[in-house]
């Protein structure tokens, strides 16, 4: 059980780093996960960890790639072929997330034009 907990803690820690790089406010995370700000602050400080469901929800809503983070921690050491495959999947996921973010921005801009 402690191995699972430490793996989840590592996944959560790395995901928090990704959220920080994307400059996602803790208030947005609290809103998405329906957690109070104190709990989210503890997650960001490493006292608590996100659940995999929380990570999936946040990543999906914010279009943030996570396949690499989760796979690296759950699969441990990877063969060179598996490592290359993972890098390809990460690149594809990143491209998809970027494209979805651009599409959302275009739709939002069109909506503002239509409203004016």
Describe this structure in words.
With 116 residues, the chain is an all-alpha fold. The protein is built from 6 helices and no strands. It has helices spanning 2-21, 26-33, 37-45, 52-62, 67-75, 80-115. The longest helix is centred in the C-terminal third of the chain and has 36 residues, at 80-115. The mean pLDDT is 86.
Note poorly predicted spans.
none
Biggest sheet statistics? none
Radius of gyration: 16 Å
Structural class, from secondary structure content? Answer: mainly alpha
Q: Give the N-terminus to C-terminus distance in angstroms.
A: 56 Å
Helix content: over 70%
Classify the beta-strand content into a percent band: under 5%
What overall geometry do the principal axes of the alpha carbons give? Answer: flat
Instruction: Compute the average pLDDT.
Output: 86
For the secondary structure, the number of strands is 0
Order of helices and strands: HHHHHH
- How large is the count of helical segments? 6
SSE arrangement:
Blueprint: H1 2-21, H2 26-33, H3 37-45, H4 52-62, H5 67-75, H6 80-115
Short description:
Helix content is 80%, strand content 0%. The chain has 116 residues and is an all-alpha fold. Helix 1 (2-21) packs antiparallel against helix 5 (67-75) and helix 2 (26-33) packs across helix 3 (37-45).
